[in-house]
Amino acid sequence: MLHNPELLRNHRRHGTYFLIDGTLDARVRELAILRTAWLSQAPFEWGEHVAIAKKAGVTAEEVERVISGSTAAGWSDFDRAIIAAVEELLSDAMISDSVWSVLAENLNEAQLLEFPMLVGQYQSVAFFQNSLRIPLRADNPGLTAR
């Protein structure tokens, strides 16, 4: 990205918003990022965010459930909607009315606007990292992270 410093600067600014200034609860954010990373088969993103998600309260069992997706047993209705919303965005480029209504019961308007932007940001990161085959850091286990 150093070949395009302006792109790097804007990319960092946009990504930092979600991690530091975003309105979504960290656990919600990390569930959405993990499902995006898994569906995108993004080893760097997955490996980094499993650790971040656990710090945000996502359990090891939930990390396993993220891999299985929204049909896995054990999700609360809201958590299932988070996972399903990511699946719908990546497959249909929109969230269904039924899933949106569950999200709307739990998120305010600002958070509802932020959610699809978050998923899009991390899908974009996956496109970039996967295409450039960004190497994993020594402490990042990639898609084997649990």
What does this structure look like?
The protein is an all-alpha fold. It has a single domain (5-144), classed as AhpD-like (Up-down Bundle). The chain is built from 7 helices and no strands.
Question: How are the elements arranged and paired?
Answer:
Blueprint (H helix, E strand, L loop, with lengths): L4 H17 L4 H14 L3 H13 L4 H9 L8 H16 L4 H10 L2 H24 L14
Strand tally: 0
Spans of at least 5 consecutive residues whose pLDDT stays below 50 are none
Class by SSE composition: mainly alpha
Alpha-carbon Rg, integer: 15 Å
Order of helices and strands: HHHHHHH
Helix fraction by DSSP (H/I, runs of at least 4): over 70%
CATH-defined topology: AhpD-like
The largest sheet is: none
Q: Mean pLDDT, as a whole number?
A: 96
How many individual domains? 1
Assembly context of the chains = single chain
CATH architecture level-2 label: Up-down Bundle
CATH superfamily: AhpD-like
